[in-house]
Amino acid sequence: MKTLAALFGVVWLLEVLLQGTGIGGVRGPLGVFEALALVPASVVQRGHAWQVVTYALLHDPANAMGLVFTVVALWFAGSPIERAWGARRAVALVAAASLAGGVAVVLAGLVSSKIFQGMTLSPAAGNTALLAAWCRMHAKERMSLFGQVTLTGERLLAISVGLTALQLAWQRGGVDVAALAGFAVGWVFAGARPSRDAAAPLRKRESGPRFRVIQGGGGRDLPN
């Protein structure tokens, strides 16, 4: 997850530095990276199929908070999943969710002209897949988030999906379509194989945030 976070950071920085420079003959807001953003019209009419994957590497160069949210998602949900499943399977989840999200955006574009002509760039599908997988791993456990909110993994996921669906209904953006697809992929992925978190000793303990799981009036911290 640290490698993914670093990759996203480097790509975003390059976007910021190269936007509007005209390198490669492109002066749009994304500069040379514009060809990597997902535009369903380009995929369908011009055959730019690579965009259903490459869009997930990009963030809006004018919005640093998008990058911050990605790093937080990798930190909170990605790190424990990487320890439980191994780095290869965790990265496979992000890749599969990103592909599914890209395909979902193209399909949504066939029924929405706004999405069809619009530009989607975000690793939202991978982020939501990690969250959904984490929530399924702790579906019935009661968690206290920083001692302020207590809820189960299932409830956290339901709230997250509901908010994303409401945002899609309001904004009708491709990012929300990709995020919903990510939720589905993450839930299915987590159910495909039991977690090794409790069965195998941890080789390395990484620092990170803690969700406190409450059981029978007591509690234990879920290390991240």
Topology:
Elements lengths: L1 H17 L21 H7 L4 H4 L9 H22 L1 H23 L3 H5 L6 H14 L4 E4 L3 E4 H19 L2 H19 L18 E5 L2 E5 L2
Antiparallel strand pairs: 1-2, 1-3, 3-4
Helix pairs in contact: 1-4, 2-5, 4-5, 4-7, 5-7, 5-9, 7-8, 7-9, 8-9
Description:
The structure is a single chain. It is built from 9 helices and 4 strands, in the order αααααααββααββ. The protein is an alpha+beta fold and 224 residues long. The chain has one domain: Up-down Bundle (Rhomboid-like fold), CATH 1.20.1540. The termini are close together. The model is unreliable at 195-208 and 210-218 (pLDDT under 50).
List keywords for this structure.
224 residues, alpha+beta, Rhomboid-like fold, four-stranded antiparallel β-sheet, 58% helix
Brief summary:
This protein is of the alpha+beta class and 224 residues long. It has a single domain, classed as Rhomboid-like fold (Up-down Bundle), CATH 1.20.1540. It is 58% helix and 8% strand.
Approximate helicity band: 55-70%
Gyration radius, to the nearest Å? 18 Å
| Largest β-sheet summary | 4 strands, antiparallel
Overall number of structural domains: 1
Instruction: Give the SSE string.
Output: HHHHHHHEEHHEE
Structural class: alpha+beta
What is the count of β-strands?
A: 4
Mean pLDDT figure = 83
Shape: globular
